[in-house]
Amino acid sequence: MNLIYLHGFQSTPLSMKGRWLKDYVEQQTNIKIHLPDLNMPPLDVMKNMESLIHSLDNVAVVGSSLGGFYATQLVAKFAVPAVLINPAMRPWKLFQDLFGDEQIPYKVCDTWTLDHAHLIDLEQLAVPFVQDADKIMVLLQQGDEVLDYREAERYYKRSLLISESNGNHAMDDFKIKIPMALRFLSDSIK
């Protein structure tokens, strides 16, 4: 299996969850992990991920927050299995609410500044309903201080949902969920 980890907004491929996944698969499995940097405009992210998926066999995706949003779009386009960690549902609205007109354009990193056109791109990328719902596992924590878990519960209602009380947006206990996530992805590829 080729596993692609899609990190969240203002994060990096080697965030805590990215490192945990990398360490686990390198020590415990024959899975090849890919950790792309998503700090770029949304259309560039999707173009790069589509190229990556086309170049690989037996692809599965793990996406966290904004990476979960991108993963949902990739499932719809390629029917790849995915595990989503506190996925962003409507990132264009979230960023507008967080930063407002007075802070957008918002410098995310040295190579990317989020602007209003990117918000429109995100909205236009979004699929209106979950496609291939049986290929998606959604891990939610109700203590998420950034996103409303109920929105994800409604949207992904036909997918495998694990919704835990408490927790946080970072899902600090993701490390113990890795074996379960990889089992789901492996079973879904077959």
Automatic annotation (TrEMBL):
UniProt keyword annotation of Phosphoprotein present: no
Molecular-function GO terms, alphabetical: hydrolase activity
Keyword Transmembrane: no
Pfam families named in the record: UPF0227
Keywords carried by this UniProt record: Hydrolase
Name listed for the protein in its UniProt record: Esterase
Native species: Acinetobacter faecalis
